[in-house]
Backbone:
């Protein structure tokens, strides 16, 4: 049985439903552990309806008092901090859990990810595209030689977190470094686990907004040709979301197809002809490893005419 932890509030219920549906489209025996705060019975029921006969869901109510003095905003709502308590909230008999943000699409089996040995580590995670930017990593107290991981997908060693008091240490770090951190929960986890994380393949947390950035932003030190030849299993919409008109990811159409297939109908924005054309052009270019620069000019020209 694979165990997956999610944190949501009422605003993310529908996106949580899509995530669960995408997981179960390829992985049948899964228990979902949802960290939330007073989620309504209606929302809980709508999530439960996405399950199959071999999957389960458990809801955990998180006390907001844990997050007093923490920075909160529209971009960083209280719910982002729930993941920091996952080892304290989940049953002690659970030794490992896969934490995921809810702006994610699963595109295959995660058995290989679940089988990764993390006995000696706090988490297994994918290195973030921000990792090579040394000043940012150094400013939060991390060793840039070790790197900086994205906390949107983490295979967590729960006993490690419990023994090393990771939850309390991350909360304390955030309160003590409010003026330094840019990504509160992620910066804190990187600081506390800087020497204790295992780097895994990008396919397990492919950051959709940066797909085309690999072409032109040399400071990200990423080679698009190297990563374009594999099949991303977990696509993470870490910037513009599929339900935002500004989202340019080629994967948003897969997201919409899945949401419609599993009965989540209220999150698909009205798309223009340009959006569909862009998808097919970029998808084709992605398969051949072609730079998108000329296509972007072509699409912009169409947009201006319309």
Residues:
């Amino acid at each position: 049985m694979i165990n997956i932890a999610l944190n949501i509030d009422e605003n993310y219920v529908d996106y949580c439903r899509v995530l669960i549906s995408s997981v179960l489209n390829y992985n049948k025996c899964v228990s979902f552990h949802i960290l939330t705060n007073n989620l309504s019975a209606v929302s809980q029921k709508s999530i439960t309806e996405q399950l199959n006969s071999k999957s389960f869901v458990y809801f955990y109510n998180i006390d907001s008092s844990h997050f007093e003095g923490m920075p909160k905003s529209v971009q960083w709502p209280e719910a982002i901090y729930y993941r920091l308590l996952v080892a304290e909230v989940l049953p002690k008999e659970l030794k490992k859990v896969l934490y995921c943000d809810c702006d994610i699409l699963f595109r295959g089996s995660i058995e290989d990810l679940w089988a990764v040995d993390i006995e000696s580590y706090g988490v297994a995670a994918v290195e973030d595209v921000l990792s090579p930017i040394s000043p940012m990593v150094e400013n939060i107290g991390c060793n840039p030689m070790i790197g900086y991981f994205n906390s949107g997908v983490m295979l967590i060693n729960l006993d490690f977190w419990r023994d090393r008091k990771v939850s309390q240490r991350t909360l304390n770090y955030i309160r003590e470094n409010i003026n330094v951190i840019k990504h509160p929960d992620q910066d804190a986890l990187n600081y506390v686990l800087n020497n204790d994380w295992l780097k895994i393949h990008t396919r397990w947390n492919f950051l959709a907004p940066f797909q085309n950035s690999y072409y032109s932003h040399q400071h990200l030190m990423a080679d698009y040709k190297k990563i374009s030849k594999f099949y991303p299993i977990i696509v993470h919409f870490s910037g513009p979301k599929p339900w935002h008109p500004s989202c340019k990811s080629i994967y948003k159409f897969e997201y919409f197809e899945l949401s419609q297939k599993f009965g989540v109908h209220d999150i698909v924005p009205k798309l223009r002809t340009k959006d569909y054309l862009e998808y097919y052009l970029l998808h084709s270019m992605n398969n051949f490893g072609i730079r998108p620069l000329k296509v972007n000019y072509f699409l912009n020209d169409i947009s201006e005419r319309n």
